[in-house]
Design a protein that fits this description.
The complex is a heterodimer of chains A (119) and B (42).
Chain A lengths: L1 H5 L1 H5 L3 E7 L3 H11 L6 E3 L4 H5 L3 E2 L4 E2 L1 E6 L5 E7 L7 H13 L15
Parallel strand pairs in A: 1-2
Antiparallel strand pairs in A: 3-4, 5-6
Chain B lengths: L11 E4 L2 E4 L7 E6 L8
Antiparallel strand pairs in B: 1-2
């Protein structure tokens, strides 16, 4: 979560807004932020779990959200969806790579990275 | 799980920076990520 904050400018380059979410309350979020410092993007308090459920990444048994990551385009379409096990952190570089490719709007071959030519 | 190509579910929820609505982000790319709980080290 702090890593998204450190890389916020990299997301801004593509005009993308970062939003974090989990099923904790606003109260818990604020206590957590006191520990880790300021986070400049909104952290959603999905206390009712409705949002996690609507994205299909809620573990109904434990009430926690899996590490789901979604890129949503300006027309509110899902353009990227991934889900990690609770034990595995995300790769922010990969999310930025996909965002770069999507905003490029051209076919990007295997292992494409920003700066490389498209098809 | 929500799949690529689907319309993102609409939402209006409380956040650390006030109310957040999908409609606030019209014409923007959004990276929405979920994590299990606060106070986790990953």
């Amino acid at each position: 979560m702090p890593e998204f904050n450190r890389r916020l400018d990299d997301f801004e380059k593509f005009g993308a807004k970062v939003i974090g979410a989990n099923p904790d309350s606003l109260y818990t979020h604020k206590a957590w932020l006191e520990k880790i410092g300021q986070i400049d993007y909104p952290l959603i308090a999905d206390y009712t779990k409705a949002l996690s459920r609507s994205f299909g990444i809620l573990d109904e048994e434990s009430g926690v959200a899996y590490r789901g990551t979604f890129i949503i385009d300006p027309n509110q379409r899902i353009r990227y969806a991934s889900e990690n096990d609770l034990l595995v952190g995300r790769n922010i570089n990969e999310i930025l790579r996909v965002l770069a490719a999507l905003t490029k709007g051209k076919p990007c071959p295997v292992n494409w990275e920003a700066g490389k030519s498209t098809l | 799980m929500i799949k690529v190509g689907m319309k993102a579910p609409d939402f209006t929820v409380e956040s650390t920076l006030g109310k957040v609505s999908m409609s606030d982000y019209r014409d923007k790319w959004i990276v929405l990520f979920f994590y299990p709980l606060d106070f986790t080290p990953i």
